Amino acid sequence: MAVGMFGMPALGHTMALAHYIAALLVGLTFRFYGIHEHERTAEPPREGNMLSRALAALIKARQEDGRPLGQMLGDAIKDSMRTMALICGYIMMFAVLARMIDVTGLFPYVSAPFRWLFAVLHIDPALVRAAVTGLLEIDLGTLAASRATDAPLAQQVAIAGAIIAWSGLSVHGQVASVLSGTDIRMGPYVAARLLHAVLAFIWTLVLLPMAGPLSLGAARVLPTLGGLPAALWQTPFWEHLMRGTRWSLVIPLCLALIGAGAALLTGGVRWVHFHTRR
Q1: pLDDT tens track for 225-244
Q2: Using an 8 Å Cβ cutoff, are 216 and 208 in contact?
Q3: So where does this one cross the membrane (predicted)?
Q4: For residues 21 and 253, what is the distance between their CA atoms, to the nearest angstrom?
């Protein structure tokens, strides 16, 4: 999105970091969700490591399934094609819905809550259309945010980040269709997406000033070879690839380690509390 829509590759690391931090905070927040719904019981001891247990469960499920390998492959292909058609159908349906809201004159009424909220938060009203569209469909919403050039660039990027974190009702419908027939509830998922959108918006605004002048309003770089600096495309391929992926690998790894440490600490606190209560 930083290159294809905003034409500014320098925004990529900032937006990715904001989303990683927001996702980590959402995970830590929902770490305590539902801990009082069911009484905790001591788990029986498990034999072997996680990999061996997973392999044993895989073999057991394969034996209980009973289908031959050819039928399993065919069913897997049919299910994947059905899922792809489902995703495309949701995208087209909500894209048409967004267009119908605009054509039928319902946009002023649908956008009224966003206009009020943006006025309270001092966000440029030129981004209202992007927010309404992003509420329905993620790609059209981020594209509208990138095209709202009358608004400050920082607000454009922050709104686009919030839209990506929210993912749009189109994606929510896809998730609901996949989760149908399971005991997984959609309420916590929607709440997590909303919290992720708010945190991504905030962290994008926080991190943008640290990204340097290019991310804050310097001349945009066209996503074509001719618009890139000569030093960029003259750099050997593997060296450029390593430079581009360095932070994309380091940042998630660091955040994963922080999240694992936080999970261990919170899990340890809950374990002590459980046993002392007994």
Answers
A1: 334 444 443 444 445 445 55
A2: yes
A3: 6-30, 87-110, 157-179, 191-211, 249-272
A4: 12
Structure tokens at 274: 């459980």
pLDDT in tens, 246-276: 555 666 666 667 766 665 665 544 443 434 4
Q: Which residues of 155-186 are buried (b: 16+ CB within 10 A; e: fewer)?
A: bbbbbbbbbbbbbbbbbbbbbeeeeeeeeeee
How far is Cα 75 from Cα 83, in angstroms, rounded to an integer? 12
Taking only the tens place, the pLDDT of each residue in 65-118 is 888 878 888 888 998 998 899 899 999 999 999 999 989 989 999 999 999 999
Which of 254, 245, 163 lies closest to 204, judged by CA?
163
Can you tell me the distance from the alpha carbon of 134 to that of 145, in angstroms, rounded to the nearest whole number? 9
Residues with Cβ within 8 Å of 17's Cβ and at least 6 positions away in sequence, in order, are 203, 207, 247, 251
Count the neighbouring beta carbons within 10 Å of the beta carbon of residue 154.
16
